[in-house]
Design goal:
Layout: H1 3-22, E1 26-34, E2 37-44, H2 52-67, E3 73-76
Parallel strand pairs: 2-3
Antiparallel strand pairs: 1-2
Helix pairs in contact: 1-2
C-alpha cells in the first residue's frame, strides 16, 4: 500500500474515533502520515489533560495499528 493510501485510511479511522474523544470535550486532528508514523494534533479538553498520552497510545494508536497496515506509531504535534 502506498503512502497516500495509508494516509487516507488513517485519516478515515481518526474520523471514526473523533466522536468518542469529543464526548469528553476534546478533539483530534489528523496532520500527516510520514514513514509509518501518523501525526495528530490533540485539541480542546485534551490539551493539558493528564490522560492524553493514554488516549493516544491505548486508544488512537492501538486502533490505527490494528486497522491500517503500514502504521508503526502515532505522535502528537
Amino acid at each position: 500500500m502506498d503512502e497516500k493510501a495509508i494516509a487516507e485510511q488513517a485519516e478515515a479511522v481518526i474520523e471514526k474515533i473523533k466522536p468518542y474523544i469529543r464526548r469528553d470535550g476534546g478533539d483530534i486532528r489528523f496532520v500527516k502520515y510520514e514513514s509509518g508514523i501518523v501525526y495528530v494534533e490533540m485539541l480542546g479538553a485534551c490539551v493539558g489533560c493528564s490522560l492524553v498520552d493514554t488516549t493516544l497510545t491505548d486508544g488512537v494508536e492501538a486502533i490505527l495499528l490494528e486497522e491500517v497496515p503500514g502504521i508503526i506509531g502515532v505522535e502528537q504535534i
